[in-house]
TrEMBL record, chains A, B:
Annotated protein name in UniProt: Nitrilotriacetate monooxygenase
Residues binding FMN, per UniProt: 58, 102, 156, 227
Lineage: superkingdom: Bacteria
Keywords: Flavoprotein, FMN, Monooxygenase, Oxidoreductase
GO molecular function: monooxygenase activity; oxidoreductase activity, acting on paired donors, with incorporation or reduction of molecular oxygen
Species this protein is from: Halotalea alkalilenta
Domain Luciferase-like per the UniProt entry, residue ranges: 22-382
Record-linked InterPro entries: Diverse_substr_monoxygenases, Luciferase-like_dom, Luciferase-like_sf, NTA_MOA
Pfam families: Bac_luciferase
Amino acid sequence: MAQTRQIKLGLSCRYLGYHVAAWRHPDVPSGGALSLQHFLKVARKAEAEKIDMIFFADSVGVREDDLPPGSAARSMKNAELEPTTLLSAIAACTQSIGLVATASTSYNEPFNVARRYASLDHISGGRAGWNVVTSWSEQEAWNFGRDQHFDYDTRYAMADEFVDVVAGLWDSWEPDAFLRDKQSGLFYDPEKLHILNHQGRFYRVRGPLNSARTPQGRPIIVQAGGSEPGRDLGARAADVIYSSAHSIEKAQAYYADMKARVAAYGRDPSELLIMPGVTFYVGETMERAKAKQDLLQQLIEPQVGLSILYHHFGDLRDYDIDGPLPEPKHAKVKSLADSLYQMAQENNLTIRDVYLTVAAGNSGWTIVGTPESIVDELQSWSEKNAADGFNICPATLPNGMEDVAEFILPELRARGMFRTEYEGPTLRENLGLALPELGDIVSRHGRKVVSL
Amino acid sequence: MAQTRQIKLGLSCRYLGYHVAAWRHPDVPSGGALSLQHFLKVARKAEAEKIDMIFFADSVGVREDDLPPGSAARSMKNAELEPTTLLSAIAACTQSIGLVATASTSYNEPFNVARRYASLDHISGGRAGWNVVTSWSEQEAWNFGRDQHFDYDTRYAMADEFVDVVAGLWDSWEPDAFLRDKQSGLFYDPEKLHILNHQGRFYRVRGPLNSARTPQGRPIIVQAGGSEPGRDLGARAADVIYSSAHSIEKAQAYYADMKARVAAYGRDPSELLIMPGVTFYVGETMERAKAKQDLLQQLIEPQVGLSILYHHFGDLRDYDIDGPLPEPKHAKVKSLADSLYQMAQENNLTIRDVYLTVAAGNSGWTIVGTPESIVDELQSWSEKNAADGFNICPATLPNGMEDVAEFILPELRARGMFRTEYEGPTLRENLGLALPELGDIVSRHGRKVVSL
C-alpha cells in the first residue's frame, strides 16, 4: 500500500486570531496582542502538538486609521508586538517549533533584515523564517517619509533585489570559517570570508554580515505572492509559499503553476512547499461547529462589517447593506478585491453576506465541519496536488489552537497524515528541506548571488 | 549620620568582554558571542546580583575588516547577535534586570526603532533601554548604500531629529487609550490617540505607532556622546549617560557640565544619571589582581596590538613598536584618538605601552586592585560628584561578572552603596526615575514633541 502523504502545518498567530471580532469572544484575552504570555501559551501548545511553525503577519503602521468614523476605534488591528523581537522571546522558551516573522522589503534596509533573521536563527538553534512582503498601505508609506506607497512594479523589483542582497549577506561566511583557535590566535580563516559587494538598481551593500553562517545554513524564506512578479520571486527564492485559494481547482492550478516555475529555475519542485491558508470552525457535530462560527459572526457590528470591505470597495455606508456589492474601487490589494467581487457575483451575495463571509475566514479558505469532514478536505487537497501542507489561520486564539489539538490533529494522525514527533531540532529538517550550499539562491540573472 | 550615596550599576556584555584577547582566555567560551546560553548565563548572574542593567554596544558591519593583513582574522569583532533580538530572548528568561540595546540613528528608520524598543519594553514588562549612537565607521556606511559615513554635523543633526521622532511615536497612545470593551465593541478611545505628523529636515513620519504606551511609559534612553552636540542631545533627551573618563577630575568636570545642561533644559538634574565606564582587574591581593591582567596582556600579539591603534593612528607597522606614538591620523573617533595621544605625551608612553593600556580596558577607565582599593575609588567618584553609578566593562565574560559578584558587590554592600533587592520590576523604578508624562522629551525648539 502506498504511504499516505504527510502534510506540513503552520499556525498564523497575529493579533488574537483572524476573525474581525475575535477580541470580543468571551474566551479570548482582549489585550493578548501585546502580551508575551498570550503568545507563549499558543506557541507551547503548538509545539506540544508538533506543528511545524508559528507565523506572524505584520504591517509597519496602523492601516485601519483611515476607516470611516467610529470603525477605526472598533478594530483590534492597531497595537501589537514587533514579530522578530516577539519570536526571539518565544525562541528562548521553546525547543523545536519554527518561528516565521514578516518583514517588509519596502520599509527596511536589507543589511538590517539579514542580520536580525540570522540572529533569530542563531538564538533559536535553527528555527527562523522570513516572510517576505512588499507592504500595501499608504499608512505604512507615511511612516517612512513617503506620500504614497511604491507602485506595484517598483516594489516588486525592490523586493527581488532585496532578497538577493539578504541571501548574499547570509552567505558571507562559510560554515567552518570561524576557527577560534586560542593557541594560534586565529579567530577566522580569511579564505572563508566572502564580501558581497552588491551594486544594483536599488541597493548598494558591501558586506560581510557581522554574523556567522546560521544553524539552518540560512533562515527559511517564506513568501505569499499571488501576482505574476510575486509568483516569480517565490519560485526563484522561497522555501515555503503561503498561498490563498477558495477552491481545490484554483489551488491545484496555482500548485501546478508554481511547481513548474520552480523547475524552470533549475530547482527540484519538492524544494518549494505550497501551504494554502485555511480557517476551521470545528466541533463534534456540524451543529456545534456552526455554533462556534455563529457566536463570532453575531459579534460583528454593521459598521465593522463595512470596514472590512473598506480597503477593497471604499466607503459603502450609502449602499443598501442587504443589496448587491458594487465593483472594487481604489483597492489596496487588487487581486483580493477582484476575487471577492467575483465570489459575490457567482453566488449572488449581498454586501452583508460578503462581509460576513470575509469575516469568517479573513477572506481566506474557510471550513465549517466535524474533524472527519474537515480532514477529508485537507486529505483531498494534499492527495490531489493542491497543497503540501496548510497554514492554519485560527478565527480566535488561544482557543483556535486548542481546537486544532483536540479535533484536527487526532484525525490527521489516525490517517497517518501528520507527525507524532519532530524530525529534528531545526525548521529546515522538519520541513524536509536540505541544508543549503552557499549561493543556493540564484538571482534573476542566473549568476550565483555570492561572490566567492 | 548622612546616608551613603547609592550607586547604579550596568554591565556591558558585548562579544566576550572588553579585552582584545578576551576570547583566548582559558575560561572564556570563544564562540560565546553567537550563543544565547552564554549571554543568559551572564544575565542571570547579573540579575541574581541585582545589577541595574545589561548593555550591548553594537555596529552594523564588520569594522575590523580593513585592518592590515593578518590582523583582521585575529579579531573576535566580526560576528555577534543583533542586540534587540538577543535582549528579547533574555527578557523571556529573566524578571527584573534592565535590557539596553544599541541602535544607530544613521542606519535605521525611526519608525522601526520606536517599534522594536516599544516591543522589547512590552515583552520585558518595562525593562527596555535604547542606547542612541550615530555610528562612526566607513564599513557601516558601505552596507547602507553610501561611500562614506555621514559627516559629524549631519549625523548629529539626524540623531537629534531621530530621537524626537521616536519619542513622539512612543507618545502615540495615552496610557489608558485601550478600552477593549467587549460589551460596547469599542477597542480604543479615539480621543486618546495622537498622530505625530512629524515633518523635519531628515524625516517625515506620520504615526501613530502600532503599539500601546509601554510599561515604562517609554523605554529608557541612553547616550554616550562626549562631543558638544552629543552632550547637548544627552542633556535634552537621555535618562542615562555612559560616559568615558580616565581621571576623577575629568569625570567631575563632565558631570558638572552635564548636570548644568540638563537644568538648562528645564529638567531636574537628578533625571539624568551619569555612569562612567570602568574595567576592573580584581583579586584578594594586588598581586592576584595584577596576575589576572597580565594573563590577558600576554595573549596580545604585536600585530593585534597595532590593530587596536589602527582606527586612530593608521598603519603603524613601519614604526618602532617601542618608540614614541605619532600624532593621530584619519581618526574615526577624534575625541578618543586625541585623548590617547595626550595620555601618551603626558606619560611618555611607547606604541607598545599605549596598545597595552588601551587593551587593558578598551581605552576606558581601568582599575587593578583589591575589593577595598577599587571600591574606595568608586566611592570617591560617587561622593565627589563624578558619577551616579558605573557601567562595568568586564575584561572577559562570563568570569568578569563572577569577579564583580565575588569581590566588588560584597564590599559595595558592606558600605551601604548598592542595593540588596530590586526596588521594582521596571528598569525605570530601579534607576529611580519617575514614570514620564506624554511629551516629556522637549525638542530643541522648545515645543512638546507630541501633537496632543
